[in-house]
UniProtKB/TrEMBL annotation:
Family annotation (Pfam families): Inos-1-P_synth, NAD_binding_5
Name listed for the protein in its UniProt record: Inositol-3-phosphate synthase
GO function terms (MF aspect): inositol-3-phosphate synthase activity
Chain segments carrying region Disordered: 1-27
Compositionally biased intervals (Basic and acidic residues): 1-25
Start and end residues of each Myo-inositol-1-phosphate synthase GAPDH-like domain: 223-327
GO biological process per UniProt: inositol biosynthetic process; phospholipid biosynthetic process
Family note: Belongs to the myo-inositol 1-phosphate synthase family.
Amino acid sequence: MTAHDAPQHDSGRDSGGRSPGDRPRTGVWLIGARGSVATTTIVGCAALAAGLQPPTGLLTETQVFADSALPPLADLVFGGHDTACTPLPKRAEELVGAGVLAHGLPAAVGAELAVVERRIRPGGPERGDTRTTEELVECFAADLTDFTRDNGLERTVVVNVASTEPAAAEGQLPPSSLYAAAALRAGCGYVNFTPSTGLHHPDLRDTAGAAQVPYAGRDGKTGQTLLRSVLAPMFRSRALTVRAWSGTNLLGGGDGAALADPAAAAAKNAGKERVLAENLPEVPEGEVHIDDVPALGDWKTAWDHIAFDGFLGSRMILQTIWQGCDSALAAPLVLDLARILARADALGLRGPVDGLGFYFKDPDSGPADLAGQERELAQLAERLADRA
C-alpha cells in the first residue's frame, strides 16, 4: 500500500501495510465489492475496529472463538472485483438513505472507504468481452496476487457476495466459477456466500480437489432458511407430520432484480428445499415463490405457511413472518467466515472446512439441523485454537 492510500486518521500503520508492532494483516477480497452486502461488511468492520458499534451478530467475537487466534477485525484489509462503477462511499450513503446504515456512519469511516475504493478492480466478463476463460482467470488471479503483495498481507481470503447468477450454458464457466478458479490459482482461501456455481462447476472438480487452500460454501443462511433449519427438526423431534410447507419471499435491491430470473431463483430455492429434505422424514408439498419488489430496497419479507398433523389426525397450521435487512444479516457472517478461513489457512487446513454448515444453506459437509451445526462450529473453534 502506498503512503497516499493510508487512512488519514490512522497514523499507526506505515506505508508497507503493517500494523503497529509489524503485526501481519489479512486480506479480504470481495466479489461484488460495491454491492450492498460488501459495502455493509466494509463499513461494519471499520466501525467495529474503531469501537463505534458493538459486534452484534458476530460469532467470532463471542466466547466460543476466544481462543481461536483469529485475525483481529482491525487487521483485515479489503479489496475486490465489481462490474458496477458507483464509488464505495456513495454506495454507503445510498444505504443510509435505505435505512441499512446509521446516519453519520459512512462519514465516520470515510477515509477507510476511500482506501478500499482505490483497491477495487474491474470484474467481468462484461457484455462483449472477448477475453478467453484462461485470460479472465489469469487476470483475476493477478489482481489477487498484486493485492496481497502490494499491501504486505500474510494471506488473502476471497468471498463471493455478488448477486445470484443463473446456471451457465453447458461447457461454459460462469463468472462465479471464474473468480473461484482465480482464487485457487492465486493460493487464496475461498468462500461462496451465494447460491451461484462457484467451485461446484464440473470443470473445477479436479482443481478444487487438489486445492492447497481452504474453502467453504455455499449460499449464506441469513433468514428464511435459518428459521427452517430450526423448525423442521422441531417437527421431526416431536413426531409431527408436516404435510405441506410453502413460502414466499418479497425482496428488492440487486438480489430482487437478479432473482426475477427464473433460473437464478431456482438456484436460490434449491438450498431452501434441501433444508427440509434433510430434516424431515418426507419432503412436504409446497414450494417457495420469490417476488422482486423494488420498493423494498435492501429489506426483505419471508412468509412460510406450514400445514402439519397432530395427534389423532388433528390438522394444524404454523405461519411465520421474517422481516429483515439482508445486508445487515449477511455482513457479520461474511466477517466470521473470512476470519475463520484465514485461520484455517494459517494452520495448513486444505479443501472444504468441516464445521461451517451453520453458515450455509448448502454446506460441504455436516448435519442439516442448526443445533447440530452449532455443535460442529464449536468443535471447529476448538480445532483452530492456538496451542502454542
